[in-house]
Design a protein that fits this description.
The complex is a heterotrimer of chains A (236), B (213) and C (291). Chain B is an all-alpha fold and 213 residues long. Chain B is 82% helix and 0% strand. Chain B has helices spanning 2-6, 8-23, 25-28, 31-69, 74-92, 98-130, 136-152, 154-159, 163-198. Chain B is extended, with a radius of gyration of 26 Å.
């Protein structure tokens, strides 16, 4: 037996989801605006809650446990908030400088390896030893990485051998983009199907989905015919 | 005090020191230095969490502006601000049950899903309208996309087994190489940008305006 | 609906309303969910590699189960998430949930509900066998600090209860994790790779389709040990572990969605070459005649 709370969750969820889908009709509608502002409002509230939670647990709780050094985090955080003050916004520059410096330190000390050295060394693969499939894969990877990289040289003139290399790299990129497009579509369609699954399984949810779809479509078409879409939709 | 805080040189020095205090201990492996560096990183993680408030304040300001001007549809912004406050209130009633959970499942989750799910429809319609085999490059894109799409659909992937090895080959070589190429390029760009910021050549990152430079 | 003037069907194929695409796509995805067909599936080498890493998990291993996804991403990779959790529970691993997005804070509950039977059968107890930490990775600094000094950053679980006394007492830094299972739309995965995997912590990733090309280089370079790709990868994993779930049931609609895209692209090309291109050539010829 399904309880009223679950039914209300499904009913409201499907209605709001269909309101958001109403953008596919091709015109802005107040139903889409309703869904959009619902999401923005609740999601922003959610973000505030969990960031306060993080500051509390990582900062305040540890300070109360005796880690007084973390008091600086509260002080710097408060200084950071003054960024929005028209007169005292300069106060935020010090915490920004500290955070940025630390951030660059964190990134640069690792991406040099994960994004550069290890990627280059992974491209240096055996080209003359191994089975047929391994050789095919290795040669393709090496050729693709080198020629694709030359396509993105913007600081030198693309002529002669470099020009030929760049044009060849462009063709290789198009093959890669076809693959990436297919993988991206797989991802997006997975999102939609996953969403639809949550409102068709178990079966009792399906009528709510279908009714919401028909209801929202009918409302949007009615508003379109009555000229209400533009009147009721918020300005951008 | 104001002059000290406004001093551009001081900010760059502080940024550079902060950078070195995090960057160097990683390679030197001195335990006390590592501990101090980790403490600074923890402080920075908390300070960064504060910056969310800046985005929220901007959101509030924009919303109030629209409401005060009574722009068309201003009531939607009022509704948004009400839902924001409601969510804060609901969280105080408990996050593992009650109205908070109701909102998560009835509003946030379906809308988050559809927000990105809509892109599948846009992708399909854009692909249907824009993907034309006008020239060799476009044809190559279409052919590789076609092969991978046919493999990804389990039905054809299982019955027409020829698609599988070609699709895996394309994914493990061309697509991976493109990903690697972008990763290397972005990394080099990030390193160059980082060095420029640390050396003070990008003051706008610190919020220093052109007049102050 | 059909073009009446010159061009006929070819004109329609070149210029049809895009809303037909939306409607047909929606119907071919919903239809099989309401009336499942049940299609066979092959398993890719990457999924086998991911599965093999999971098979090496030992009882008592400490697993960092990171959810780097909004709720939309969860819809896509839930099959992989639930299947992975199922394997970990059957292996009696100890699982610590951490999330990097505020929307993901309720996902651990959903995952636990999905594998409740297995957890009950294996006598899983909160604190001893699993802990939910909540939103502990809001930014890179948090990930890095957690990697270097876990208890300096994390002292409470997601409901504010102290983690002292749980199995997390055994964690001090990145070295103490036996495996990281990351489920991602790309939020903090780069940071986890940089601060955990680069230091040698074994890591496997289940990513959405959009991220496959950007995560593959890490797999190829050996920084991560397994990559499960999108919903299809999750379905393959369900097939491998012999426990059908949301992934396999979605594969019917998944297939038809792909076919519809191919058909629409073909229709568009037929329309382009049969009508639009002719019109363009005709217009170019008339333009050159007029001077």
């Amino acid at each position: 037996m399904v309880d009223i709370i679950e039914i209300s969750v499904v009913a409201v969820g499907t209605f709001l989801a269909m309101c958001m889908f109403s953008t596919l009709y091709g015109k802005s509608s107040p139903l889409y605006a309703l869904a959009e502002e619902s999401y923005i409002g609740f999601a922003t509230g959610l973000t505030i809650i969990w960031n306060i939670d993080y500051i509390w647990k990582t900062g305040i709780v540890n300070i109360m446990a005796g880690d007084w050094v973390l008091l600086f985090s509260i002080l710097l955080g408060a200084m950071m908030l003054l960024r929005v003050h028209p007169k005292y916004s300069y106060v935020a520059r010090l915490p920004i400088a500290i955070v940025l410096g630390a951030q660059f330190g964190l990134s640069l000390r690792t991406i040099i390896f994960t994004g550069f050295i290890q990627q280059i060394s992974a491209t240096i693969v055996p080209l003359f030893t191994g089975g047929t499939q391994t050789l095919l894969y290795n040669w393709t990877i090496v050729i693709c990485v080198i020629f694709m990289l030359t396509f993105f040289f913007y600081t030198v003139e693309m002529e002669g051998a470099l020009g030929v290399s760049a044009r060849f790299g462009e063709y290789l990129l198009y093959i890669a983009f076809g693959t990436v497009f297919a993988q991206t579509f797989m991802g997006r369609i997975g999102l939609v199907i996953g969403f639809l699954q949550s409102y068709t399984i178990p079966d009792w949810k399906t009528p709510y989905l279908l009714v919401s779809m028909v209801l929202v479509l009918a409302l949007v078409m009615y508003m379109d015919r009555a000229g209400l879409l533009e009147k009721l939709t918020p300005e951008d | 005090m104001a002059e000290i805080l406004k001093n551009k040189q001081l900010q760059i020095i502080v940024m550079a020191l902060s950078f070195l205090f995090v960057f160097l201990p990683y390679f030197l492996n001195v335990p006390q230095l590592n501990t101090a560096s980790t403490k600074l990183v923890t402080i920075c993680s908390i300070v960064t969490a504060f910056t969310v408030a800046l985005a929220v304040i901007a959101q509030f300001r924009r919303g109030m502006n629209i409401i005060n001007r009574r722009s068309r549809g201003w009531y939607f912004k009022a509704y948004m601000l009400v839902t924001l406050v409601l969510m804060l209130g609901f969280s105080l009633m408990g996050r593992d049950s009650g109205p908070y959970q109701w909102v998560m499942f009835a509003v946030v989750n379906p809308l988050s899903s559809v927000n990105y799910g809509i892109l599948a429809f846009y992708m399909a319609s854009t692909a249907a309208r824009a993907f034309r085999a006008r020239n060799t490059k476009a044809l190559m894109l279409l052919v590789s996309g076609f092969i991978v799409l046919m493999y990804q659909a389990p039905l054809t992937g299982a019955y027409f087994t020829g698609f599988e090895p070609i699709s895996i080959y394309l994914g493990s070589t061309f697509s991976m190489a493109a990903g690697r190429m972008f990763l290397i390029s972005v990394t080099v760009g990030a390193i160059v940008f980082g060095v420029r910021v640390i050396l003070g050549k990008e003051p706008s990152v610190l919020g220093i305006s052109k007049e102050e430079k | 609906m059909m073009a009446k003037e010159n061009g006929g069907i070819l004109k329609w194929m070149a210029e049809y309303d895009r809303r037909y695409v939306y409607l047909v796509l929606f119907l071919v995805m919903v239809g099989p969910l309401l009336r499942p067909i049940g299609m066979p599936i092959t398993v890719s080498p990457d999924t086998v590699q991911y599965y093999n890493v999971l098979q090496e998990v030992q009882p008592g291993d400490k697993i960092f189960f990171t959810l780097n996804t909004e709720f939309s991403g969860y819809n896509e990779i839930q099959s992989g998430i639930i299947a992975t959790m199922r394997v970990l529970v059957e292996k009696h691993a100890r699982v610590c949930f951490g999330v990097a997005h505020v929307e993901a804070t309720i996902i651990p509950d959903l995952v636990i509900k999905a594998v409740q039977a297995e957890m009950t059968a294996n006598d899983y107890q909160y604190g001893r066998d699993y802990v939910i930490l909540g939103y502990i990775m809001p930014n890179e600094a948090a990930v890095a600090a957690g990697a270097e000094n876990f208890h300096g950053v994390v002292t409470q679980d997601w409901l504010g209860r102290p983690i002292a006394g749980t199995f997390l007492d055994e964690i001090t830094d990145w070295e103490d994790w036996d495996l990281i299972t990351d489920f991602t739309t790309g939020i903090c995965t780069g940071y986890i790779i940089n601060h955990y995997a680069l230091r040698g912590t074994p890591m496997i990733i289940n990513c959405i389709g959009v991220s496959i090309a950007s995560e593959k280089p890490y797999l190829d370079s050996g920084i991560i040990q397994g990559l499960l790709q999108s919903m299809r990868g999750g379905a393959e994993l369900e097939f491998l572990i012999g426990h059908p779930g949301p992934g396999l049931t979605a594969m019917d609609g998944f297939s038809f969605g792909h076919y519809m895209l191919i058909i629409f692209i073909l229709i568009g090309n037929v329309g382009y070459f049969g009508y639009t291109r002719q019109q363009q050539m005709k217009a170019a010829t008339e333009g050159s005649k007029n001077g």
